[in-house]
Specification:
Layout: H1 3-18, E1 37-48, E2 51-63, E3 69-71, E4 75-80, E5 86-92, E6 94-98, E7 103-114, E8 120-129, E9 134-145, E10 148-158, E11 164-170
Antiparallel strand pairs: 1-2, 2-3, 2-4, 3-6, 4-5, 5-7, 6-7, 7-8, 8-9, 9-10, 10-11
């Protein structure tokens, strides 16, 4: 056998040996579930009748194949009234958007401010349901309003925080 023939036989044997898939199954080839897109310093605007109604800002945004989004370094949302004036803001340490539910979830130190009334809500978890124009939580809440501190478990409110209901109020209340 010639030297060239031996080299060719060695290469072919190596190729067949490299294609050996014994011990591998479909489970070894799992589908990638991580983010398909990453963006920094993002700004998302939602408008109605060519007027900005909501502005969302995040330092870092991760988007997944199912169109869910993760905001691991915080989220800041501003709501604008019909005159285009900023009326309410939501700030949180982290945020997540579920495309299937069309719902944003803010976690960590969550602060909602109604800039028109001066009221401020603090909680550790808050859901914003964009289609329902509402915010809600089942967690402990504190609301500063006119020098008073309202506390309780759970809250349902309009997204602009113009009206709200604490589901299980607690604490001391002053009655006039």
């Amino acid at each position: 056998m010639s030297k060239q023939c031996c080299i060719l036989l060695f290469i072919v044997a190596g190729l067949f040996g490299a294609c050996d898939d014994e011990g591998q199954s479909a489970e070894d080839f799992k589908e990638y579930e991580g983010p398909v897109m990453e963006a920094t310093n993002t700004e998302i605007l939602y408008s109605d009748s060519a007027q900005v109604r909501i502005k969302l800002e995040a330092q870092r945004q991760l988007q997944y194949g199912n169109e869910d989004m993760d905001f691991p370094e915080g989220i800041y949302i501003e709501f604008f009234n019909e005159e285009g004036v900023k009326s309410t803001s939501i700030k949180a340490n982290k945020g997540y958007y579920s495309k299937e539910e069309n719902k944003y979830t803010a976690t960590g130190e969550v602060v909602v401010k109604n800039l028109e009334t001066g009221e401020k809500l603090e909680t550790e978890l808050l859901h914003w349901e964009k289609d329902k124009h509402s915010i809600n939580t089942d967690r402990y809440v504190e609301i500063e309003s006119d020098g008073e501190l309202l506390m309780g478990e759970g809250l349902e409110a309009k997204e602009d925080f113009s009206s709200y209901e604490i589901l299980k109020p607690t604490g001391i209340f002053s009655l006039e």
